[in-house]
Design goal:
By secondary structure, the chain is α/β, with parallel strands linked by helices. Helices cover 33% and strands 21% of the residues. The chain contains eight helices and twelve strands. Helix 1 packs parallel to helix 2 and helix 5 crosses helix 6. The chain starts with 8 loop residues before the first strand and ends in a 5-residue tail after the last helix. It binds zinc ion (ZN). The site of zinc ion has 6 residues, from loops.
């Protein structure tokens, strides 16, 4: 029973391939508190749910901050069934995640694909509030995509729409985490950028003073630092990443005719190194009728819209 004098708060969880962000939010989309922890996706979903429960109990134990329901954005999360469908980069298999978490927390739980949750957060609380038609792209560990058409999030017949990252037919020998060859995600992701740098260094036809000094487990952020320092391999790597994404987004734009494309995720920190070649490749591959009609926006990295979107799944009922 909820005391009517108590504020009703919700938990939003954004499960990423590397980190999980948990927020305690109000019905207006304001963050009361937030923390993050390492997803450790190589461990089981059971282990994850136990850790999540422990940390939520430790952080949000005060009576006034007690949540009434939990919304979760997770790769492969199926809003229709409550199952996660064997997401790439995770060792979780196919499991009824809503049931697992509801059993642990003893409050209502709703899940959704993480990329869809981010789009929902933008739609309800972000810059997309006035938008009817937009594409939301998340670029980080993986490449997430959501489409909003006519003000509605497209979830698809089985709740699994938006796997844009696992489309594409890029040349080369890269095998994606899904097992296919040529997927966008094998190029446009943290691992994809790293691979591009390694291939450029190996080919040796572009000079590199900074990238060549990076250790084996370098990050996309370090590639951006090298680019800022004038390293030609780093600049070329971001150019290739932008071109691959821009060219393929042109196909999506031709199909759904969005007003905007909103980008979020860690790779957006590459800024102009990524977005200048992206925009150029996008415009170059569009039909005349679509040219200069799509606005590119980068989401405010200080607000986690995937957490807000996830929380909004359990608001109003
Ligand atoms: Zn793939």
């Amino acid at each position: 029973m909820i005391d009517c004098n108590e504020a009703v708060n919700y938990i939003g969880v954004d499960i990423g391939g590397t980190n999980t962000v948990v927020g305690l939010v109000t019905a207006d989309g304001a963050f009361l508190d937030k923390f993050s922890f390492s997803t450790d996706a190589h461990l089981s979903a059971e282990v994850f749910s136990r850790r999540l429960h422990q940390m939520v109990s430790a952080h949000f134990s005060a009576k006034e901050s007690r949540p009434t329901a939990i919304g979760v954005g997770v790769p492969g999360g199926n809003h229709n069934t409550g199952f996660i469908e064997s997401p790439e980069n995770f060792n979780w298999g196919r499991i009824n995640f809503e049931q697992l978490l509801a059993g642990r927390f003893q409050i209502p739980v709703k899940i959704m694909n993480d990329a869809a949750a981010a789009a929902l957060g933008q739609l309800r609380f972000g810059t997309a509030r006035e938008m009817e038609d937009f594409i939301h792209i998340t670029i980080g560990t993986g490449l997430g995509c959501s489409l909003v058409a006519g003000g509605r999030l497209i979830t698809g017949h089985n709740g699994l729409a938006g796997e844009f990252g696992h489309t594409g037919n890029e040349k080369g020998e890269r095998i994606c985490t899904c097992g296919r060859r040529g997927c966008l995600e094998s190029w446009v992701s943290a691992g994809g950028v790293k691979k591009t740098v390694q291939e450029l260094l190996q080919a040796g036809d572009v000079p590199s003073a900074l990238c060549a000094r990076l250790s084996g487990d370098f990050t996309a952020e370090q590639v951006t630092e090298c680019a800022a320092g004038g390293d030609a391999v780093a600049v070329r790597a971001w150019k290739i990443t932008g071109e691959v994404l821009g060219r393929n987004l042109a196909t999506l734009v031709s199909v759904v005719n969005p007003g905007s494309i909103i980008f979020s995720g860690g790779l957006t920190a590459a800024g102009a190194f990524l977005f200048d070649p992206l925009k150029e490749a996008l415009e170059e591959n569009l039909l005349d009728m679509h040219r200069n009609t799509v606005e590119l926006r980068i989401s405010d990295s200080h607000i986690n819209y995937a957490v807000l979107g996830a929380a909004s799944l359990v608001m109003n009922g």
